[in-house]
Design goal:
457 residues; TIM Barrel; 2 domains; nine-stranded mixed β-sheet; alpha/beta
Length: 457
């Protein structure tokens, strides 16, 4: 019997259109950058000096591209936001200013008052309870073998949805920030704690953003941690490659410092990598490809952690394009997080059901090792749980119950879908506090948990 071979039909060009990266001097369409040459635009110091921080600077930068109504809307948004605003020229140049309200880059960094929604009644500023798991300032020790080191509180841009809006950036009209470990003396307390806990093998260095650490401090922190015998893995975390990739092209001292720590770690049999944070496929341009090539050639492995954001990447096709584009520029898609339940950004959150649907679509698009895991960082300090691993999910009322037996056994952690995404009847139920408590009690009961197991809510 002759076996029949079945040839797979060729894919349409649209299937690999993610490879078509924005190139050329695209920034010249912005009035303030019209006369900026490539060498200047790729200068990371120029990018930092010209970052937009106020409505006045935004108006001066985009001028006739944005309507007066939008600028007034943004000015009100700046005043109501829990995070300070700082947006790089690179990110400003990627915004479609003919439709700023719908643009995925604008949505992440520039608040507008007209889009803001009331917070869910169960939201808190530090939704992950990081301060409750902080044995010394600037260190979060939640998982048995992993700690989060926060050596600074500044970033090259400030994301509206930051889970650390309680501490990152300058004080705002709405939030007085908590102090992190910002001095080398405070760092020594962190190092001493890590050295005293032999179970700690994995340290994430974040903040803030390690992009803002000078090269000498990248090496100092990296080498100090490498010298602790039981520390086996280290991750430097930065949003920088997504919104200021040119630093990796023009700041050779910073790249050299990171590469030296990576190389020394490898020689010691220890793993040192860079974790970054791309959320929208538009963030990845030809400049990004060049920057990632620099790290690739230096042997720096890069993983990506996205946040699932309404109007940015919550449509299956957009997330698929982001994942494929990341793989194309040698960035490993690692996690997609549910948007944390932080205050002031309810217009950016979406539902657990949305995350499940997006994940189903993305899985199978590319190799398994290049497919991110969709997770919910359980509010109250339960840690990362696969988004579909809830004990119970009340889709009608938007209540997901998670357990974390290896992190905080015997406790229950709740994630709440944004109320505006629920049915009118469910929205009405949330307006009645007595009914809301009954809904939470019933969700816990169906999850096999008692009320006293609940961490927050």
């Amino acid at each position: 019997m002759i076996e029949t071979l079945h040839e797979k039909a060729p894919a349409s060009p649209e299937t690999y259109a993610y490879r078509n990266l924005l190139e050329g001097e695209f920034w010249r369409r912005i009035p303030a950058y019209r006369d900026v040459d490539e060498a200047t635009f790729l200068d990371h110091l120029w990018q930092q000096r010209h970052s937009v921080k106020t409505p006045e600077e935004l108006l001066e930068t985009v001028r006739e591209l944005a309507s007066p109504e939008f600028i007034r809307d943004a000015e009100l948004g700046f005043h109501r936001a829990p995070m300070a605003v700082r947006v790089s020229p690179y990110a400003i140049a990627l915004v479609d200013w003919s439709n700023p309200y719908g643009d995925p880059i604008r949505r992440q960094f520039i608040p507008v008052a007209s889009a803001l929604l009331p917070d869910h009644p169960r939201l808190v500023l530090d939704s992950l309870h990081e301060q409750a798991d902080s044995p010394v300032p600037g260190l979060v020790h939640r998982y048995v073998d992993k700690a989060l080191f926060l050596p600074l509180a500044v970033c090259p841009v400030y994301c509206r949805f930051c889970t650390r809006s309680y501490a990152i950036g300058p004080d705002t009209e709405n939030v007085d920030k908590v102090e992190l470990a910002k001095t080398p003396k405070q760092w020594q307390d962190v190092f001493a704690y890590i050295a005293s806990r032999p179970e700690l093998e994995d340290v994430v260095i974040s903040g803030g953003d390690v992009y803002q650490l000078p090269p000498k401090n990248i090496e100092f922190i990296g080498n100090t941690l490498l010298d602790i015998p039981h520390v086996r893995r280290m991750r430097f975390a930065s949003k920088g490659p997504a919104i200021m990739p040119m630093k990796l092209i023009t700041d050779t001292a910073w790249v050299d410092a990171l590469a030296k720590v990576v190389e020394r770690g490898r020689a010691m049999g220890k793993d040192v990598v860079l974790h970054t944070h791309f959320n929208a496929p538009e963030e990845i341009t030809e400049i990004t490809r060049r920057a990632m090539r620099v790290l690739f050639e230096r042997g720096v492995f890069v993983r990506n952690q996205s946040v699932l954001i309404r109007g940015v990447n919550d449509k299956p096709e957009r997330m698929q394009r982001l994942v494929k584009r990341l793989g194309y520029v040698n960035v490993h898609p690692y996690y997609v997080y549910m948007h944390d339940m932080v205050k002031g950004v309810e217009d950016l959150r979406t539902t657990i059901a949305t995350a499940e649907n997006v994940e189903k679509f993305v899985r199978g698009s590319t190799a398994g090792f290049n497919t991110p895991t969709f997770v919910c960082d359980a509010p109250g300090g339960g840690g990362k749980r696969d988004v579909h691993s809830y004990e119970h999910y009340d889709r009608e009322n938007g209540i997901a119950v998670y357990a974390a037996p290896s992190v905080k056994p015997g406790r229950a952690f709740l994630y709440f879908d944004p109320i505006d995404q629920l049915s009118p009847a469910a929205q009405a139920r949330w307006r009645d506090e007595t009914v809301a408590r009954e809904m939470i009690h019933e969700a816990l009961r169906r999850a096999g948990q008692r009320d006293e197991a609940l961490v927050i809510a």
